[in-house]
Description:
Blueprint: H1 3-24, H2 32-54, H3 60-83, H4 89-111, H5 120-137, H6 143-164, H7 166-170
Helix pairs in contact: 1-2, 1-3, 2-3, 3-4, 3-5, 4-6, 5-6
Amino acid sequence: MNTPNKLTLLRMLLVPVFLIVAYMERGSQVYLYSTLIFCIASFTDFLDGYLARKYNLITDFGKFMDPLADKVLVAASMIWLVQIGRLESFFVVIIVAREYAISILRAIASVQGKVIAAGKSGKFKTVSQMIGTILLLLNSSLGMPIMYIALIATLYSGFEYIYNGRDLIKEM
């Protein structure tokens, strides 16, 4: 297993650690330790992609697990934010629904022997969700404005993926 794939697995393993630490910090105004864990996990997303591209270490495992790890990390953190009253549940519903839709589209493409790579709007969506999550965990007033930007980016990128994949859907 190469380094980028190990980083992806580390990100998946950090999700329950994040939740355990967040639960231990429950009631705090600032979730400092869980935010640090979330930041480390988020950084592995950047680092694994960078290393995979730079050293040509792209694998089928990474193509599948990297986006899954991102989705699990973001969904878990946002569900936690709903639980502690810092985020409305409709954010999570829209974001998770978009993720399911794009995952289904990627599965359809895979069956047809095609790969849908992450686009710029999808990457911006992930970064804005992560930054918004960090700010909300830190109880920053900038958290909600960034989450609204993330929500718009989520919807835009979802529509963009579906529009660009419309031929795949027609072939079903």
